[in-house]
Description:
- By secondary structure, the protein is mainly beta.
- It is 13% helix and 38% strand.
- The strands form 2 sheets. Strands 1, 5, 6, 8 and 9 form a 5-stranded mixed β-sheet that branches.
- It is globular.
- The two termini are 13 Å apart.
Amino acid sequence: MGTLTAPDFEAVCILHPYQDRLNISGDLAARVNAHLAKVEYPSDEGHFAFVFVRKQGIEIERIKRSQKLDFFGNRRLPAAISDAVPHNFSQEDCVSGASAAIIKIRFDDRTYFLFGQAPAP
């Protein structure tokens, strides 16, 4: 499991393939969705994206899906993988910057990552 951001990030969110807005409510989601609409964020099957939120602005890092790296999504983990995931990790679409984390997994001959939060112990 690895930490994803520096401490000055307010939040980190993930956009799944074909997702052009956050499907949650609240001030953060409204702010991110307004930014995504303003920049006309293009969503498609071949990409996912991290959305990094700071007080100074919002950055989008769009990443191409491939055999070498793909986003697992929030679907249920197979038993062989779920046993290896730390107990303090939970899959989420949007988390505070301080608790944002990723886990790299291997499944069906493909490398995936899980996105979520892992609060400090």
